[in-house]
Amino acid sequence: MKATFTLLCVYFYALLSSGNTSDDDDRRWLSSLIALVEMDYEDHCDQRATASWNELVGSPKGLAQKLGRDKSYGIFARAQTTDVRIALKAHALSDDELLKRKVQLLLQPGDLLLPTEQWIRLVTFADTSENTLRFSTDYDCGTTINCSLRELHNGLAKQHDEETLRQMKESWEKKLPDLNEYLEKILPLLKNTSKENEFNTVEEYWDSLAEYESAILKARELWERIRPLYEKLHKYVALRLKGTEAVGKPLPVYLLRSLSGDDWSNVVENLLPKHADIYHKLYANLHLKNLGGVKAFQEATKLLTEINMPHIEPYTWDKSIFNSSCPPELVDWCKPNKLRVISCSDVTIGHYMDAHEAVMQIKYKDTVALHSNNTYTLRNANRYSAIYEAIPEFASLLSVNPHALSRSGLYPIERFNFNPNYHRLVLQLITALRDLPKLNFYIAADEWRLKYLKETTTSATKETSWSDYRKEFSWLETSDVDILGNSFVLHNKPFIGKFMGLILKYQIYQSFAEELVSDEEDLIKHISENNDRLVTAMSQGLGVKWPEMISELLAKRENALEYTGLTDYYRLLDEYLDNQLDPQQGINESDDYVEPSEPEIIENEIPTEYKLPEKTETHESIQDNEIDTGEGNNMKFGAETSTVGVLEIKNPVGSGDEEQKDTNVKEASYNVYWWIGIAVAVAIIVLLIAIIARKRQNHRKQLDRQRRENTHA
């Protein structure tokens, strides 16, 4: 309030003296005006954050407080935009690029330009709907009729009965807002918002919020390149869940143990390849270390230290809550070092990755806030930056990097070096089940809303158009209303920034990985030595449009979004899916998996409530887990690590010596010279194999690099 009064005084003075001011005076005055506007924005942010936190933790008046603050914020922002526009008519903007950027962001704040009545309608619909979903306690969890949303999610992940899964999803759908109200009163507000922001179509308006020229068009182009991998994954999931007759047909979303179909992680145990040692050990060790809740976040902060970024202060976790629902939500008071997290205490691979993403989001916000040029507008304007989405997502990808897993004590690098491609395949499957359905959901939700607003569907099919569109576009059977379970949809926000960010995170990963000499090198260490391009991108905030930062972020390898980072990352999974969907491709190959010699994890060492997942049906044939690496029919999956495997096998004995060992074991045990001779022979053989394997591996790396260079060319 005080800042507003000061602003009015300054503005009144400027009007009186506007007739004889110089350009420098105009710039200084306008800069002062913008600074005062930002002070008012910060006051509102602080008040809205407090109200949001109270609503998230379930305070009795939390929803009323949040609604009140959100309503007043829209009224305030619209009025401030009018004041800035009037001031520009009397004062020149000069050549101050940073000031021009702030003015641009303030004049086009997105949905905040809606007329007061329409803004209140939007936030009331969205806030009330989210609160109902979050705090309802009468969901059907299968074994329990009255349960919370968190219990519903946990029950959904463990349930196997199809009918029970369907009932659980339906109990959630009953809490969703009215579809007719959304279609008739909420979604059409996007047209009004576009006009208020001076755009002809919603697509142009969303492109402007993403700050990428023809963003929606680019997303369609990228998706067409990624679609084949998504369809292969879908067919593989259908094959393993329902059999050959289901391949290529729509799958009910509840069979994926998902409410909206944007994450298929809950069915990973049904999809594991024959050799899934890394998944079972990772699952067991997460529970042995109890890496859920705050412990998962504390573990994630260690990764920041490993990539040479400042540690997050412990008081961030002291004020946060970890017994609520997942995925994590951040509340930002728009001040340095004042963020809180609300999350759950679940111990899962997905939550472990989510914690790493949330921690990097906090560090991103802290880094932006500490940069001297980044005032409120350049930190918090209503824009959807793909870089802001990509860098935290990149951290979640690093959390399952072999060296990161080893440092966390979840899977030793020595064990990973047995058949690493087998382990890479499993890790790729885990991430693909999270990311590919998200990409599909993001673009499907944006495309459907755009098509609906263009009235490409008839009035007779409007109420079922989402389920029809999802069936055709995603091969998923959903209900008409489950799209309303997403916060971005309820608030009329586009997913285009998240879609592009998910693509970009794989380009970031690829840009660092290509700088390594071999796959066995420590990627985490390499990033720590070259993290300046990450920090630079983070520190600039919204002062620069994010597409202009891509080249530096990717070490000048590319200057635009490309799909190849994602498809290259999933090369092993892509080949594996081909073999599974057409087993004849691998019929002449054999299984060369080397069993590690160290003792297995003993099941009774794990707490009763955290037993290892039951073994699900795997492949009938040893050929089912083969992957052709492209180096000839005799090059077997994982063969590049045969040297390491030989070195780790204890007391290797040739098959032809077994009888002699059995009959002369006592004599051999005392024959020192005999053992020395065998050891020397084995050492020579190992050395020769190592030399040959290294040459083959280097040759393969060179071919891969040439292939990538030719592809980019």
Task: Give the SSE layout.
Elements: H1 2-17, H2 23-56, H3 62-90, H4 97-107, H5 116-135, H6 149-158, H7 162-173, H8 179-186, H9 189-196, H10 202-210, H11 215-242, E1 251-252, H12 277-288, H13 294-306, H14 315-318, E2 329-332, E3 339-342, H15 349-370, H16 376-380, H17 386-398, H18 402-407, H19 413-416, H20 420-453, H21 465-474, E4 476-477, H22 487-490, H23 496-513, H24 523-529, H25 532-539, H26 550-553, H27 564-569, H28 571-581, H29 642-648, H30 658-663, H31 665-670, H32 672-712
Parallel strand pairs: 1-4
Antiparallel strand pairs: 2-3
Helix content: 55-70%
Q: How large is the radius of gyration?
A: 29 Å
- Number of separate helices: 32
> Biggest sheet: strands side by side, in what order?
1-4
How far the N terminus sits from the C terminus, by CA atoms, comes to 58 Å
Structural class: mainly alpha
Q: What number is the mean pLDDT?
A: 84
How many beta-strand segments? 4
Strand fraction: under 5%
Tell me about the largest β-sheet.
2 strands, parallel
- Ranges where pLDDT stays below 50 over 5 or more residues in a row are 10-20, 600-672
The multimeric state of the shown protein is single chain
The 3D shape can be described as: globular
Word description of this protein:
- With 713 residues, this protein is mostly helical.
- Among the domains are: 107 residues; 36 residues, no CATH class.
- Helices cover 60% and strands 2% of the residues.
- The protein is built from 32 helices and 4 strands.
- The chain has a two-stranded parallel ribbon.
- A hairpin with a 6-residue loop joins β2 and β3.
- α11 crosses α28, α20 runs antiparallel to α21 and α20 runs antiparallel to α23.
- The radius of gyration is 29 Å and the shape is globular.
- It starts with a helix and ends with a helix.
